[in-house]
């Protein structure tokens, strides 16, 4: 395992980048804790795979350094970094059996055959391929081949880090859940440093100790699932995490009050003067529909999704979502909405502003 340090790291695919906009990965300084499980989460094209490939050594950064346990590996080859990487699409040796594919990383490092056989059997059991060990990889489904790729990535216990680049894309939904569970168990049992790239918030939040949210080449927040939900540091985090995401509404903020079209909304903290784009953000879970309390709202439709209802509404010309419990009535007279002041966040130019005690 290794502590991974990203020091003044940035990357552009252009030979002579002229501005920050030319960088696919904007400047980043961070320490990835030894033995932690991270998820890199964001939309396609946000820089997740670029960062992962820099960590693995497949890509040389335009600037900055990467260190493993304090040792500079920026110019070290992938093999010298002692990492395992699993890619989005299967990478297997078609002419080999499943057994030999899984054994290859161990044999390549001179491990004795008794250990190899035991470890291969253990991994095959984890990925559900014990009955396939003597089958050639050629002709297997993409789903089965990707399980082999995952197994080969997990077969070594002595790696500095395990890197996964959207590895469950071609896996069927039920197997995705099983393999995520096995990855969590692997992390618990052996304490590998793991970095898992995904655009799926469910995968990220159920796999990782900490989630690294990326937007437009920049890391906008690193935190636990609870931190990302309760206090999104950037409006993108609020939008991307949660289903539905956070309501973001333009407002004017003065002290401990927000004003939406001149209508007053209480806040739990006080704020100094704010210029530029000012918005409030409140999750649908912290909005409450009522017939008597709050500000006027117009309900457009109600979606019953089983455990709760999602109320789609219009609020001063802005679309908002409200979540009501499964047993909560939604009547035609419920034309007002209130927000829990303790869960109303204030954003200035998309970044969270921390207020003083009101």
From TrEMBL:
One of its GO terms (molecular function) is ATP binding. The keyword Disulfide bond does not apply. It comes from the Bacteria. InterPro entries: AAA+_ATPase (IPR003593), ABC_transporter-like_ATP-bd (IPR003439), ABC_transpr_FbpC (IPR015853), ABC_transpr_MalK/UgpC-like (IPR047641), Mo/tungstate-bd_C_term_dom (IPR008995), NA-bd_OB-fold (IPR012340), OB_MalK-like (IPR040582), P-loop_NTPase (IPR027417). Residues 4-241 form the ABC transporter domain. Keywords: ATP-binding, Cell membrane, Membrane, Nucleotide-binding, Transport. Coiled coil: none annotated. Pfam families: ABC_tran (PF00005), OB_MalK (PF17912). Belongs to the ABC transporter superfamily. This is ATP-binding cassette domain-containing protein.
């Amino acid at each position: 395992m290794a502590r991974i340090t990203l020091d003044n790291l940035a990357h552009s695919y252009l030979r002579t980048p002229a501005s920050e906009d030319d960088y696919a990965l904007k400047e980043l300084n961070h320490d990835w804790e030894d033995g932690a499980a991270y998820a890199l989460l964001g939309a396609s094209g946000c820089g997740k795979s670029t960062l992962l490939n820099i960590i693995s050594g497949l890509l040389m950064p335009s600037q900055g350094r990467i260190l493993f346990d304090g040792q500079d590996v920026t110019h070290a080859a992938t093999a010298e970094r002692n990492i395992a990487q699993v890619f989005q699409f299967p990478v297997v040796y078609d002419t080999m059996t499943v057994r030999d594919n899984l054994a290859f990383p161990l044999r390549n490092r001179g491990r004795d055959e008794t250990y190899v056989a035991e470890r291969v059997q253990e991994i095959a059991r984890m990925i559900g391929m014990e009955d396939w060990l003597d089958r050639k990889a050629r002709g297997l489904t993409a789903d089965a081949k990707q399980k082999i790729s995952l197994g080969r990535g997990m077969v070594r216990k002595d790696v500095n880090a395990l890197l996964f680049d959207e590895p469950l894309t071609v896996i069927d939904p039920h197997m995705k859940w099983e393999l995520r569970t096995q990855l969590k168990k692997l992390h618990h049992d052996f304490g590998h440093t793991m970095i898992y790239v995904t655009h799926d918030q469910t995968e990220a939040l159920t796999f990782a100790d900490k989630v690294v949210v990326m937007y437009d080449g920049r890391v906008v927040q690193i935190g636990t699932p609870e931190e990302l939900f309760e206090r999104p540091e950037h409006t993108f985090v609020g939008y991307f995490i949660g289903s539905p995401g956070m309501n973001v509404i333009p407002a004017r903020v003065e002290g401990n009050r927000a004003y939406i079209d001149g209508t007053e909304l209480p806040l739990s903290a006080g704020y100094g003067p704010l210029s530029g784009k000012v918005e409030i953000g409140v999750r649908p879970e912290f909005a409450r529909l009522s017939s008597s309390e709050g500000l006027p709202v117009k309900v457009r439709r109600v979606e019953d999704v089983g455990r709760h209802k999602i109320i789609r509404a219009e609020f001063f010309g802005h679309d908002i979502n409200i979540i009501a419990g499964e047993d909560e009535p939604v009547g035609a007279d419920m034309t007002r909405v209130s927000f829990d002041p303790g869960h109303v966040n204030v954003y200035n130019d998309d970044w969270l502003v921390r207020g003083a005690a009101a």
